[in-house]
Design brief:
Radius of gyration: 19 Å
Helix content: 25-40%
Largest sheet: 5 strands, mixed
Strand order of the largest sheet: 3-2-1-4-5
Shape: globular
Number of strands: 5
Number of helices: 7
Structural class: alpha/beta
Strand content: 15-25%
Distance between the termini: 26 Å
Length: 232
Amino acid sequence: MSDTPKSLFAKRFRGYFPVVVDVETAGFNAATDALLEIAATTLDMDEETGVLSLKETFHYHVNPFEGANLEPAALEFTGIDPTNPLRGAVDEEVALKAIFKAIRKQMKAAGCQRAIMVAHNAAFDLGFVNAATERASIKRSPFHPFVTFDTATLSGLALGQTVLAKAAVAANLGFDNREAHSALYDTEKTAELFCYIVNRWQELGGWPLPEVEADESDGVASKENEPTGEDK
């Protein structure tokens, strides 16, 4: 086992590497409705202060997969025209492989073992990413298959708001409704919100936790568990 000390990033989230994601879709059913846009923002942590910040954003317009359903109401809501050649869209496989490659590189550099999706109402975004990953026959996603950090829940706790725009305003981050429902804009606003909540919790003294020695006689494992599919 390596004696290299863990980074603050790896310690903060139990070896997980949070990546903020937003998707724009042509409906609510991940199995049948098209994924039309995806963005992912990676994060950085200052090794001296533990302050979390945005690092890099990856953004792709996506071609509907063959046979995908395109709900007119969803297209009207997002304002996306899947047939517009100026979108510069790529296939799901191209977008996901590029994002996954970047995530793995940064995850390794941070000393983390697995990525965890951060999203607003995260089950929705993870469902579409998992479905697209399966359609593209990508064998390994860097993301945990079901564990997420949901900023809707975190915002409800920290700010008393569950809507992204209202939570961002409550955190004095601002929100431009004209830019909403763009994966790029929503992802970066969600990332700002997540960083705000994590950093604010630290400012208030909630992190780091007081040192508590593990007592194996009390059934507490002395070795930190790795993030695996066993998390429930």
